[in-house]
Amino acid sequence: MFGKFSKLAQSTIAAIALVGIGCSSASADELRIGAMREGSAWYVFAATLEQMIESLDGTEIEVIARGGGVANPMVVQAGKADIALSNVASAIWAYEGSEVYGGKKAPDIRALVGGLNDVYVGAIARKAYLDEVGTTDMKEIFTSGKPVRVLMKPVGSSAVPVAHMVFDSLGTSVDKIKEEGGDVIQVGAGQIADEMRNGKADIYFDTILKGHPTITEVSLTADVKFLDLPEETQKYIESHGLKVGSFGPWFSGQDGPTIGANIGTELIASASLSDDMAYKITKTLIENADILKESHGAWKNFDPSKAWLPENTGIPLHPGAERYYREVGLMK
């Protein structure tokens, strides 16, 4: 399927405790949840889920506050987490052994709950740079032969492989960009706004959610414009298992909806997770979807009735999750 490409809120806790899930276990269970750093949307999700799952008798929860969209499938595969948040795209890449992972596979990851929220990868450019090159067309920019300095997070961010797909779809690469006098700069989130504000980068690729703190800072402190993915890129990423969608306008400098790659979000698990625990976690999330939505605005459009659909999971369902979806009549 993949071609070759370049390198809770406290206010909800009482409600959760009252809801419960109607299941019990005879002995203590331990569960490790792979999320992201503290303060991220995924950390909030993990903390919310922690409160939900602790309503199970004796279950001890550990939130692993590191990893990310690309790393977490391999964190689960390696047995360092029992469940984790993942982008749908990266779960597919890991399961199938895409070159994003150097050909390594994660055959033992399974889906629990998909379609949690849309997550886009998009491009933001400095307006001064666009004025200089005389175009807002990404294809023209990357095929002009003129220098362009591209900014993104380090390897591990889901935006990185998508940016490489953009390069591939337009006939360029990191090496070619550098040969033409440009650069590809990879720095942590804390440095990104300074790089754009100080004119050290021209185009910035990142994962984009409404209210994303880094994107918000960039849009408020630098004069920027959001760029649509070119038609060639849209076709290319769709052929590699991603969806195309539009987001916003959510930020300063975004005049209207912007076309980006929708890489989605889901909760995955190890195939070794017991069927009973997978069932319980799935049941907990589906039947407490309103509490989940209240914990963070990113999940307000989560539709539990579609959580099992292949387009929202990308990888096989865990048997315990499948049992739940069939039992309640969502899967026929």
Give a nutshell description of this structure.
With about 325 residues, the protein is of the alpha/beta class. The chain has helices at about 15-20, 40-55, 70-75, 90-95, 125-135, 140-145, 160-170, 175-180, 190-195, 215-220, 230-240, 275-285, 290-295, 310-315, 320-325; strands at about 30-35, 60-65, 85, 110-115, 120-125, 150, 185, 205-210, 225, 245, 260, 265-270.
Total of helices = 15
Proportion in helices: 25-40%
β-strand amount: 15-25%
Structural category: alpha/beta
What would the principal axes of the Cα set say about the shape? elongated
- Oligomer kind: single chain
Element-by-element helix/strand order: HEHEHEHEEHHEHHEHEHEHEEEHHHH
Spans of at least 5 consecutive residues whose pLDDT stays below 50 are: 1-28
Mean pLDDT value: 87
Instruction: Tell how many strands the DSSP assignment holds.
Output: 12
Main sheet summary: 7 strands, mixed
First and last CA, distance = 27 Å
Radius of gyration: 20 Å
